[in-house]
Amino acid sequence: MDLELNNKNVVITGGTKGIGLSIAQGFLDEGANVHIISRSPGKALVSKQTKQYPGKGFFYQCDVTDEQSLSACYSEILTNSNNTIDILVSNVGSGKSPLLPINEKRDWELCWNTNFTSSLNAARVFSGSLVKSKGTMIFISSIAGLEFIGAPTEYSIAKAALISFSKTLSHRLAPDVRVNVVAPGNIFVEEGTWGNKMQENPEKVALMLNEKVPLKRFGLPEEVSDLVLFLSSSRAAFITGGCFVIDGGQTISF
User: CB 64: neighbour CB atoms within 10 A?
Assistant: First the structure.
């Protein structure tokens, strides 16, 4: 199935590891020009990707929670993309936060900025270009934003707000821009949270998967990437305002 993503200009925030990296690799494999934004250095990684994949990769070191810094990055991306941006994937996020009922203000603000403000800034900076290109905007949220799964309070609320934000933007930016959100469940990344938990207590993790996840396994970053690529493509031209869960059946609400 041809997704018609060849030569599309794709911006991915948080694209140097985990789900973001897999999404970047997926677009590169489809022949897209992928503009990766991350706080972590990644030029060597993007150079390697460019050699391995049909698409062309660019890297920009930037903190997306800082709108002024992101605006400067945006100008650089326009230079490298012939002033055209077709797809935005906002992927920055972290669930690392104390498990208190209501955390201290500093912890709350840090989590909120990482999981919501980063996407707000990206939408604000890139939406104008997406309107011009009749493009697509995708946010990566979490099933923690849909129902209680024991995640930190502020993380769950930020992810819920992101889902609401996406739904609202899908109306505000229509018919020019399609806006959707993907809500992953437990995705295994070797150097990530679940990779660490597997090393610490594999029996406990296996029990959780057996009891909570009908498919009884972790999801893979590539599986999230496949969903994002489809939603970004012309094959999904009538899909906007949706929240797409990819969790092996873990969520139980309708």
Answer: 26
Residue ranges in the chain assigned as alpha helix (H): 18-29, 43-52, 67-80, 105-112, 118-133, 153-172, 193-200, 202-212, 221-232
pTM of the model: 0.93
Would residue 74 show up in a list of annotated catalytic residues for this protein? no
Residues ≥6 apart with Cβ < 8 Å to 142: 93, 95, 151, 155, 156, 159, 183, 184, 185
Q: Extract the tokens encoding 208.
A: 């959780």
Domain 9-184+220-246 carries which CATH code?
Answer: 3.40.50.720
Q: Which of 53, 60, 74, 155 is an active site residue?
A: 155
Q: Give pLDDT tens digits for 201-218.
A: 989 999 999 999 999 999
Does residue 44 register a pLDDT over 50?
no
What are the residue boundaries of the structural domains of the chain, listed by start?
Answer: 9-184+220-246, 189-218
